[in-house]
Amino acid sequence: MSPARTSPPAEGPQLGLRERKKIKTRTAIRDATYALIEEQGYDATTIEQIADRAEVSPSTVFRYFPTKEDIVVTDEYDPVLLAELAGRPMDEPWVDSLRHVTRMALGHGLEREPEITRLRARLMATVPAVRSRMVESLAVTGRQIAEAVSARTGLDRDSLEVRVFTMSLVGGLAEITLYWAENDFRDDPTDLVDRALAVLEHGLAPQHGLAHRKP
């Protein structure tokens, strides 16, 4: 079986030659990383091996990805999805907008590169260094989403309310990935999205008989 390959998104305007070369290099580095991890595991895979497999220098790898963990937790889809979120109708309920964009994100991964999507989720769930870097990356994503939230609500992007909302959102989406991997990918990810968004929208529903239990 041929190794899984990553595929950059096709949406958006035509890119110039320089940007296409950058995407090609990033894709080659990711492909090399995932192939090596499949062969020998995450911890055994080094930047030098990745560079050799991708036919670039180690300094080039570091120029595109400051750490090995960044290769796993970053992708090309964030700008596309953030633009999609910002472009949703202003009067659309937030949950509907988030459901649309989150399902689009899942579609990108599961339809175009299902093996890589599952490998990334498994690494996030099982490798502490990857999970830690994922948490740091979520803070950046949260700040980007805050721009769309601010535009939709008129609230200051740095307000406590916007910060709590956006970090609750990105944290919840991260937990979908971890839960999915920890349960051997048995669940339908779109169902997990709906369940997570229901919690954000309505809070936790107590189990029958527990609501009136006295301490």
What is the gist of this entry?
The chain is an all-alpha fold and 215 residues long. Helices cover 69% and strands 0% of the residues.
Characterization of the model:
The chain is 69% helix and 0% strand. The protein has helices at 17-40, 47-54, 58-64, 68-73, 78-86, 94-112, 114-126, 128-153, 160-182, 189-202. The mean pLDDT is 86. The termini are far apart. Helix 5 runs antiparallel to helix 6, helix 7 (114-126) crosses helix 8 (128-153) and helix 8 crosses helix 9 (160-182). 24% of the residues are buried. The protein is built from ten helices and no strands. The protein is mainly α and 215 residues long.
List the topology elements.
Layout: H1 17-40, H2 47-54, H3 58-64, H4 68-73, H5 78-86, H6 94-112, H7 114-126, H8 128-153, H9 160-182, H10 189-202
Comma- or semicolon-separated keywords:
215 residues; mainly alpha; globular
* Percentage beta strand: under 5%
Discrete helix count: 10
- What is the H-and-E element order? HHHHHHHHHH
Number of DSSP-assigned strands = 0
Q: Given the helix and strand composition, which structural class is it?
A: mainly alpha
Task: Provide the residue-averaged pLDDT.
Answer: 86
Cα distance, first to last residue?
57 Å
Low-confidence sequence ranges: none
Quaternary structure: single chain
Largest sheet: none
Helical proportion, percent range: 55-70%
Gyration radius, to the nearest Å?
19 Å
Shape: globular
